[in-house]
Amino acid sequence: QKEVEQDPGPLSVPEGAIVSLNCTYSNSAFQYFMWYRQYSRKGPELLMYTYSSGNKEDGRFTAQVDKSSKYISLFIRDSQPSDSATYLCAMSDGGFQKLVFGTGTRLLVSP
Amino acid sequence: DGGITQSPKYLFRKEGQNVTLSCEQNLNHDAMYWYRQDPGQGLRLIYYSQIVNDFQKGDIAEGYSVSREKKESFPLTVTSAQKNPTAFYLCASSILQGGYTFGSGTRLTVV
Fold first, then answer.
1. How close B46 comes to chain A (CA, Å)?
2. Counting C-beta atoms within 10 Å of the first and last residue's C-beta, which end of chain A has fewer, N or C?
């Protein structure tokens, strides 16, 4: 079993839809949780960064962490074609940063 | 502008040849990392470094070597011992307990 599980997709939605992307993990020591967006042939860019459980909102993006269920989510409201990319979850147990990444979910938003 | 620069963008390696991928950052980050990305496998850690003149093996270090002579630079050499080097290579840097900043990647192909 992988330490971090993420559905590879693709997930296809129409423009304006609410998108839900998810990851599950097995290591209860993870405390820092991140979401990265990666466009084709580019490096990932950090979207959201949260510590421990709870919600964090930034514009159209909301990150949720449920440590009791070992489950994290990224919600995208009013999705746009420019949101079409691969979304990677990542997490660490803190201290020196050595992130463990999910395999990424490919999102396609059609006009 | 601060960031990470990877070069070259595309690299072709002949059988039995060593090649070196460049990674330079001007973010004053202490930690630097090399990841390999293959379709369906996500990001896998090759090597990482917390401070100058010190580095540690990641999950897939065999066939690779690194150096960290300067804080700004963390070059990766793909040696002839790496039997399947064709992949997308990503360099990243971070401060302690911070998200990663990634470079734009180098696509290595064996010819």
1. 11
2. N
